From TrEMBL:
GO terms for molecular function: hydrolase activity, hydrolyzing O-glycosyl compounds. This is Beta-xylosidase C-terminal Concanavalin A-like domain-containing protein. SUPFAM superfamilies: Arabinanase/levansucrase/invertase, Concanavalin A-like lectins/glucanases. Residues 271-385 form the Beta-xylosidase C-terminal Concanavalin A-like domain. Transmembrane segments: none annotated. One of its GO terms (biological process) is carbohydrate metabolic process. InterPro entries: ConA-like_dom_sf, GH43_C2, Glyco_hydro_43, Glyco_hydro_beta-prop_sf, Glycosyl_Hydrlase_43. Belongs to the glycosyl hydrolase 43 family. It comes from Monosporascus ibericus. Keywords: Glycosidase, Hydrolase. It comes from the Eukaryota.
Length: 482
């Protein structure tokens, strides 16, 4: 379904789909979301393109309809079906223009909406957004996020006897937040409520694993779930987000779910067997060019051939990548501690021809280790290595190892070291290892001689702790093997 709208903003870093809400009613899945053109001014109503999709089979791309557009100057839109049969959409008005939650009656088939009404301004926190409405015990309960998406993030609620208000704020607000605490999980907000098959209530929310310092959280926002008690006629009571929790009994484990993606609970060891495809949980940056990736090519089976792109990971200026695409494939970080490695078979011949691995968040936030062809006098430091010397020929291009980083916060200076002579012509193993909560170790060495592996540097993960989406360990390689 995304391919029908993504080309509109294919080159812009912060534009794209924001905060989709998925709801199920009458055997149909409804997805309401906002396509944001973040290059436009905050008070330009055309920056918000709100759209509706529906499908009877969410796992089948062909089941999804084309986008139905509706007018709304804002984002975080959600469908709601009232008990009288009327359908509404709620949303967060563009908060830099007017921070408020709005409601309109809507035809989800055509996108027609009535006049937008302000139903709540929140409790005074910055940017009231992410609204959801629930009907229970004769009340309309309105849930919202406030405080921005950082350390002051929180969940607030209000209720009314009429869907159009007035809404009375919950005296216990915020109902969920870890602001002003020492908890490891911070920035808790943008929540939703649901009942399980046993009738128990649960809340889900976004959070980051940062601690109160809010400096080291490379996985950025993740989903957390907490038990909720919702007594008749009362506001729901949420359990706070903690590192260790207990809750309502879980149903029996069931992994019999449609769709191509595997359940990712353990590490991967991918050999790219002949006839296979890229794993469904591998990801690209920007719209991928399928012709850039070949699984198990005949000339080098059990490998992934990646054709080089003209653009590097920062691309044009950190915010744009144009329509040429980037030769990029990665796997999202899902654990605080991990080891990720790629076997690289790469023989550069041109100046600045490069392949390698990256701790990648966005075009403006990444830490790269690659093999690159540079003049022989480019070295900034020797690579500590014993027994074989280093390749040093004047006025020639030779392969080097290079670290460099890009971020809005300071990153270490580039490290450039010529490949040791004994490594030339051999398959190399490049590694990213997170051995604690704050740093990555980047290493390299021959794939067939682990004892020769050398740590190039230990680097803080603060440069890739930013924004919403989370870090991806990636490879930008012509012939990597796993």
């Amino acid at each position: 379904m995304y391919t029908r709208i993504i080309p509109i903003v294919a080159g812009i870093l912060t534009a794209g789909i924001w905060a989709p809400t998925l709801r199920y009613r009458d055997e149909t899945f409804w997805l309401v979301t906002t396509l944001v053109d973040d290059d436009r001014a905050a008070d330009d109503a055309s920056r918000w393109d709100n759209v509706i999709f529906k499908a009877t089979d969410p796992y089948d791309p062909a089941s999804w309809t084309n986008a139905v557009h509706f007018d709304f100057e804002g984002y975080d839109t959600e469908p709601f079906w009232d008990v009288d049969g009327k359908t509404y959409i709620t949303g967060a008005h563009a908060w830099r223009v007017g921070p408020r939650i709005e409601l309109a009656e809507a035809n989800l088939e055509t996108g027609e909406v009535s006049e937008w009404l302000t139903i709540w301004n929140g409790t005074g926190g910055m940017a009231p957004e992410g609204p959801h409405i629930y009907v229970k015990d004769g009340w309309y309960y309105l849930l919202a996020a406030e405080g921005g998406t950082g350390i002051d993030h929180m969940v607030t609620m209000a209720r009314s006897k009429s869907i159009q208000g007035p809404y009375e704020s919950n005296p216990a607000n915020p109902v969920l937040s870890n602001a002003n605490t020492t908890e490891y999980f911070q920035a808790v907000g943008h929540a939703d409520l649901f009942q399980d098959a046993s009738g128990n209530w649960w809340g889900v929310a976004l959070s980051v694993r940062s601690g109160p310092s809010y400096l080291h959280f490379p996985m950025v926002r993740e989903t957390v779930m907490v038990p909720v008690t919702w007594s008749t006629g009362e506001f729901p009571v949420w359990s706070p987000v903690r590192g260790e929790m207990s809750g309502w009994p879980f149903p029996p484990k069931n992994t019999d779910v449609k769709g191509p993606g595997p359940f990712i609970v353990e590490g991967d060891e991918i050999d790219f067997e002949a006839g296979s495809t890229l794993p469904a949980h591998f990801t690209h940056w920007r719209f991928p060019r399928p012709e850039s990736f070949t699984v198990s090519p005949p000339e080098q089976p059990n490998s992934l051939r990646i054709n080089p792109s003209r653009l590097n990971l920062t691309a044009i200026n950190g915010n744009y990548a144009g329509r040429e695409g980037q030769s990029f494939v990665g796997r999202r970080q899902q654990d605080t501690l991990f080891t990720y490695s790629v076997n690289l078979d790469f023989h550069p011949s041109s100046l600045e021809e490069e392949a390698g691995i990256s701790v990648f968040l966005t075009q403006n936030h990444h830490l790269d280790l690659g093999v690159v062809m540079l003049p022989s006098d480019s070295s900034t430091a020797p690579l500590r290595y014993s027994g074989n010397g280093m390749t040093r020929q004047s006025d020639t291009l030779i392969p080097h190892l290079r670290f460099r980083g890009e971020s809005y916060v300071p990153v270490p200076n580039a490290i450039i070291a010529p490949l040791p002579e004994a490594w030339l012509g051999r398959t190399l193993r490049l590694e990213i290892r997170a051995s604690n909560m704050t740093h990555y170790s980047l290493s390299a060495g021959p794939a067939d001689a682990m004892s020769e592996t050398r740590t190039i540097l230990d680097v803080s993960n603060e440069p890739v702790s930013w924004g919403f989406t989370g870090e991806v360990a990636t490879r930008r390689l012509p012939y990597p093997e796993f």
